[in-house]
Design goal:
Elements lengths: L5 E4 L10 H16 L9 H11 L3 H4 L5 H9 L3 H4 L6 E6 L7 H10 L4 E5 L6 H4 L1 H11 L3
Parallel strand pairs: 1-2, 2-3
Helix pairs in contact: 1-2
Length: about 150
Amino acid sequence: FKPKQLVLIAAAGVAARGGARRSIFSILAKTGKLLTSFPPLSFFRERLRTRLYRLAGSTDYLEAGTMKETFLKVIGENLRADAEKIKIPILLVWGAHDAETPLEEARILEKAVAGARLAVIPDAGHFVHRDMPKETAERIRAFITV
């Protein structure tokens, strides 16, 4: 089976390295880990960590359970060279307010894949299909050819 078209929704894989926001959260996470390694602050470690990840918009990591290490490897992988090999029409569906897989990454994918189309859904975040299901379905329906 060879697909004729592809739809990706808020897909990780071309992580934009660096960025002030990521750097700040990384520093905060490391500082928090160090500070909460000493009693009595160690009691607050999980609560502080959960709040930091929610603030960063990274609830996927919190919910990954035993797959956290795998999750980190997947989101840190750069598949841009592989994306450039895609030769079929591709639709990228993204929420305008996606904090977990920023719109900047969608634009990188759009440039990497010849003929890629980017559909940005206003008022949606990372879970664009849950935030705006009708709008997401409309974009996909308009793209798909049978």
